Structure formats: C-alpha cells, structure tokens
Amino acid sequence: MDTQVIIVGAGPVGLMLAGELRLGGAEAVVLERLPAPTTESRASTLHARTMEIFAQRGLLERLGGPPPNDLRGHFGGIPLDFSGLRTPYPGQWKVQQTRTEELLGGWAAELGADVRRGYEVRALTQAADHVEVEADGPDGTVRLRARFVVGCDGEESTVRRLGGFAFPGEDAGRELLRADVDGIEVPNRRFERLPDGLAIAARRPDGVTRVMVHEFGRPAAARAGDPDFAEVVKVWERVTGEDIGHGTPIWVNAFGDAARQASEYRRGRVLLAGDAAHRQLPAGGQALNLGLQDAVNLGWKLAAVVTGRAADPLLDTYHEERHAVGRRVLGNIRAQARILLGGPEVEPLRAVLGELIDYPRVRDRLASTISGLDVRYATGSGDHPLLGVRVPPDELGAGGEALRAARGLLLHPEPPDGPGPHDRVDVVRAIGRSEAVLVRPDGYVAWVAGTGTGLDAAVRRWFGDPR
User: Fold this and answer.
1) If you classify domain 5-168+260-371 with CATH, what class do you get?
2) Signal peptide location in the record (predicted)?
3) Global pTM value
4) What angle do CA 293, 250, 255 make, to 5 degrees?
5) Using CA of residue 132, residue 137, residue 139, residue 141, what is the dihedral sign?
6) Are 326 and 251 in contact (CB under 8 A)?
C-alpha cells in the first residue's frame, strides 16, 4: 500500500477528513485537482454544531477566537432567531471559505497529512483488499494504492462516477445568480422580495459586495460553466432597477435548487462525503456544514478500521447515520427553496409560516435543525433520551481534552480507580450528571448506564478490542 486512505478533493471537507484520520493514527494522502488553493469564497457560514466541533478540536483558537456572528438566520428567507439555542455558538458565524480551507489545511498538514496538488483522478479500480487510483499529476501519470478511497470532490464528483454510485433526485428548476463585486454602492438587502424577483446584497468589510438575484419564473439555465457577469447585471437591473455594470466582478457563479443524494455513501472500499454525496441549494450555508460533519463522523471510524483497532462493520454505520441526516437536510432545503424562489403564489404560505415562527418552540426547532443540533443517531439499544445525541459543550468539562485528540470519553459521576475500559477511551468526572455516559470521538453519546447494552459491549462496538 502507498497509504491507508486516499482522499480526493482538498476543499474543507477533504481537509477536515484528513485531519480526523491523522488524529486517529491513519495515513492519508489528499489528491487535489487545482494546483493552488482557490481564491473563490463560495460558502461563508458556519453553524453552531460545526463551531462546537471546531472548538472540540482546538480549531477555534487558530481562528483567533470565534469570528463575527449574526443571531438572525432565516428559513426560506423568513427571519429566524437563533438566540434561544442551547450552545455557546448560536447564530451564523461568518468565515470566508478561503479562510476555512487555510485553517483546515494547516491543521491537517501539521498532523502529517500528505496534500498533493495538481493531481486529477482519471481511473479507480477496486480489489478485494485495496483500491488503486490513477491520476494525472504535474510529472505525468501516477498510480496510488490504498485500503480505502474517499471522494470529497464536490457536486460533479469523479469518485462518485468512477465508483458507480447512483445519484437519484431532481435537477435544478430554478436558480440564483451570485457575484462578488467591487466598486459598487447598493443598499444591503436581506432576502428582499420585489415585484419581479428576489434580491440579496451584503457589503463585506473589504468593500466587496456579494449580490444574489433570482427572477421569478425564470428557469435554471443549462450551463457548461459559470455565467458571465453581464448576465448578472441584466437580471439584477430587471429585478431591482439598479445598474451594477460599472463594478469589477471578483467571482461569478450560479446555483440552483437541484436535490440529489447518493443512494449509498459506501460501496466496498470507496466512500463519499460532502457535496460528492449530496447536492442541494446552499440555503443558509447548510451544505458546507453538512459536509464537514460527514467528515467528522467518518474520520474516526475509518481510522479505527485501517489501523486494525476495529472491524469493517463499523464503517457501515457511517452510511446508516449520515445518509439519514443528509436526507433530512435535503428535505428542509427543498421546503425552503419552494418558499424562497417561488413568486406571488407562495405569499400565503410565507405569511402562515411567518406567524408560526413567532412561537418559541417552532422557532427553536427550525433553528436547531438548520444549526445541526437536532441530530440523533441510533447508537445503541434502549430509548434513553441521551442516546445518540451530542453532549453539550458545558457538560464535557475536562473531557474536552479527550475530544481534542479524537478519543472516546467516559463521563462518570464517580470515576472508578484503575484503567479505563479501553486504551482509546479517557475517563473523567461528569458535570451535573447522575449516570455514566460513553461519548464517541465525534461528541455523540454511544451508551448510557442502565440501558439495554452493557458498557463492555458498547466499547467494543464503537472502539474495537482494547489493546
């Protein structure tokens, strides 16, 4: 083997996965088609669950502390207050994707991940005990052999195609045009619905304005690439009456309301994560956050398998858990797309939903869904309300150090003397908790004392045999 895991794609998801694998002791090579990091900042929003994960891994410190945030979000363009969530990081946190990639790339490299740029994957072959990848590199064709390959290479994933994954769903019917433009002065707009369309504008501290526009009734175009700035200028003027043609475009693209999800996230020794596994309208930044959380769910499991600590079936839980989460997220985004991009015909629905969102339980439920805080995995037998949910950061106490290293954690009200239940599990005193809980490296509860499964069985299921 040339390495244990090949990751295709050095965007945020691929780099997050590389760091997670290294924390678990696995070798990882990242192959990226682009010769240098992109300067395009596509996604700029981190949600509460991602911020909690970054804090658990010590990544917020590298950002210089929490970035600016906005306690107001939206659901399909309808204002939504995030301040009622139980988390240290409510709201939407503004980090340009270029900065996120820089952060994760530096972290993964320090941990020993091998990131190789200028390599475009052309072929992929599975065998019983390995996968071979062929790529065109700066010095010609290279072939690498690994135990597993993970496609983190975006919506047009080469790995998904070469791996034979089905990708059912719907193509885009409507689209938003988007551009970062320097040298223009337009009012900031937050989902402003005008007679002929939807307009959004936000001026950044560096003076560049991001504009997004949708013209009601205008179908998504069949595109071979990004739109011209002239197209954005014309649609913006038709919707708002303003001329932005004198500005300098920094970046232009279009995104639609396509909704697709790979029917499986694993086929033998090939796996998918991030946009390679699901395509959706990037409403409120959910796509990036969904992908980063895919990587955190997969990383420790894949590391445990390739290093021989756990058996292969542990990897099947990645599909079981994250496919269900992805399906739910796609469902809420499709609902948002209908009320966001619909014309006058959706106004009655928007009015009713706007009234319902004023109720705290409705508001907090939607905010929790968008923020990734409502995820619950089927981690074990029993129906205890803690099983499968994340441990709030304020209950981790000293256990936060274990999660920083992507280790397991046994939170115990009266920690016993002697060694813990596993060499990959640290034991610390629980804060404000009367029962012991076993926490996985991704921060989710795998076992609660008094439930149907014993601690030893739960430890072996999630961490393998102790060494």
Assistant:
1) alpha beta
2) none
3) 0.94
4) 50
5) positive
6) no
